């Protein structure tokens, strides 16, 4: 009996990315508030970067993933100079739809938790459709 190869995208894939918060990452800088702490849009971008990294080396040739849905709970403020880490885990694969659970921490403190859905697409066809639609 021959062993079946593992599918390229399967639950359990993970990645961790870090960000040291600078003035350009604050709510003031990104327009989401008037306080000098990590802005939610920048936090979301970090969470998405972790999901991209989790599958980057396993994508079929010519493919990429695009974000389709996000649920994010931003629980704690992070001041300039602190480093946050986002960890994403692929928890579900449903055809082309990929679901990730994400946790963002500042040391031992949970800064944010969430769920990110991405779709597996043909990169060239996706870009061509976007250009035609504009």
Q: What is the helix content? A: 10-25%
Query: Any idea what the radius of gyration is?
Result: 17 Å
Could you tell me the number of beta strands?
Answer: 5
**CA-CA gap between termini:** 52 Å
Structural classification: alpha+beta
Q: Strand content of the residues, in percent? A: 35-45%
Low-confidence stretches: none
SSE sequence, one letter per element: EHHEEEEH
Shape: globular
Can you tell me about this structure?
- There is one protein chain.
- The protein has helices spanning 27-30, 40-55, 123-133; strands at residues 14-20, 63-74, 83-94, 97-106, 109-122.
- The protein is α+β, with helices and mostly antiparallel strands.
- It has a 5-stranded antiparallel beta sheet.
- A hairpin with a 2-residue loop joins β4 (97-106) and β5.
- It is globular and about 40 Å long.
- The model has no long low-confidence stretch (mean pLDDT 94).
